[in-house]
UniProtKB/TrEMBL annotation:
GO terms for molecular function: GTP binding; GTPase activity. This is Arginine/ornithine transport system ATPase. Keywords: GTP-binding, Hydrolase, Nucleotide-binding. Transmembrane segments: none annotated. Residues 1-25 are annotated as: Disordered. InterPro entries: GTPase_ArgK, P-loop_NTPase.
Length: 350
């Protein structure tokens, strides 16, 4: 359902958002929540913008919105997609998304872009790279800057995912920046972690960090077409061997390897069948429910860490002392541990 279903609300949303940006009025939470539940894309986009805002008043409104919508979340299939730059993530995401909408499913894509160090905005703009899927009435694409967040995901990706579920999307695809030392946070928020690889075989395998491979529930060798098909088949065998040497995440599921050609739309049905089989097994064994519970707890602790760091930087009792302690640590006059304990002591004293 698009914004035209609620034309008067869409106009109201624009005015409300404008007021909120100018600080002249709060967002109407109940109205926004009702429109999101009805599938209003304008409301969904505005809700995600509210969630991503760093303004304290916006964050309070965002949490109020999530509280109202929480009971409508949790029904979508959550899939994380990661892979090195150049492996064809956006092409694959668009191909898989189009295949799923062709099956009658509604899909949301949260595409996390690298951030500009100068402006903080998205550099690549995934929505412009998925033009066909962006025009699909059963698909919703939301590019967000990573804003320097480790893990290849935006800090508020989890909340954005919940809003998409409340809006009635059947599948939420989270496409991350790429594979790196800390590009594993997506595994803490999705049901299935899909690692997309190129048909590079053993040479590429050496460059893939073991931790990333151990997190994968499904490995997809993309670009398995034309002259690259033989290399892709060889790579798939090598990846299967590598996965068998690693300890699986769950006793109920052994990671699988699939071939795909996003360019030709080949292998997508088999990949989706694998995803459905995985979800069914995880649900039947109770693993999915336990996994989501663990993820929620990990999310809470991450918010506590982030909140503590922000408090240390802004709290009146520690803000003035922080700069001096940084100078002492840099000059070797005190140890980092002693400085950290000193700051925490000041915070707890107040």
């Amino acid at each position: 359902m698009d914004a035209s279903v609620f034309p008067e609300y869409a106009t109201g949303m624009e005015k409300t958002a404008e007021k909120s940006r100018g600080g002249r009025g709060p967002v109407n939470i109940e109205e926004m929540a009702a429109a999101i539940r009805a599938g209003n894309r304008t409301a969904l986009a505005r809700g995600i913008t509210l969630i991503e805002s760093t303004r304290p008043d916006h964050q309070e409104q965002a949490q109020a919105l999530l509280a109202v919508l929480l009971e409508k979340t949790g029904k979508a299939v959550r899939i994380g997609l990661s892979g090195a730059p150049g492996v064809g993530k956006s092409t694959f995401t668009e191909a898989l998304g189009s295949y799923l909408t062709g099956q009658g499913l509604k899909i949301a894509v949260l595409a996390i872009d690298p951030s500009s160090a100068r402006t903080g905005g998205s550099i690549l703009g995934d929505k412009t790279r998925m033009e066909e899927l962006a025009r699909d009435p059963n698909a919703f694409i939301r590019p967000s800057p990573s804003s320097g967040t480790l893990g290849g995901v935006a800090r508020r990706t989890r909340e954005a995912m919940l809003l998409c579920e409340a809006a009635g999307f059947d599948v939420v695809l989270i496409e991350t920046v790429g594979v790196g030392q800390s590009e594993t946070a997506v595994a803490d928020m999705v049901d299935m972690f899909v690692l997309l690889l190129s048909p590079g075989g053993g040479d590429e395998l050496q460059g893939i960090k073991r931790g990333i491979m151990e997190l994968a529930d499904l490995v997809v060798v993309n670009k398995a077409d034309g002259d690259l098909l033989p290399a892709a088949k060889r790579a798939a065998i090598e990846y299967k061997t590598a996965l068998h040497l690693m300890r699986p995440k769950s006793q109920h599921w052994l990671p699988e390897v699939r071939l795909a050609s996003a360019l030709k739309g080949e292998g997508l049905a088999e990949i989706w069948d694998t995803v459905c089989r995985y979800e069914e097994i995880m649900k039947e064994t109770g693993t999915l429910e336990a996994q989501r519970a663990d993820q929620a707890l990990a999310w809470m602790w991450n918010e506590l860490r982030e909140g503590m760091m922000e408090t240390l930087r802004t709290h009146q009792g520690t803000k003035s002392r922080l700069k001096a302690l940084e100078g002492e640590v840099a000059a070797g006059k005190t140890t980092p541990t002693a400085a950290a304990r000193s700051l925490l002591a000041l915070l707890l004293r107040d």
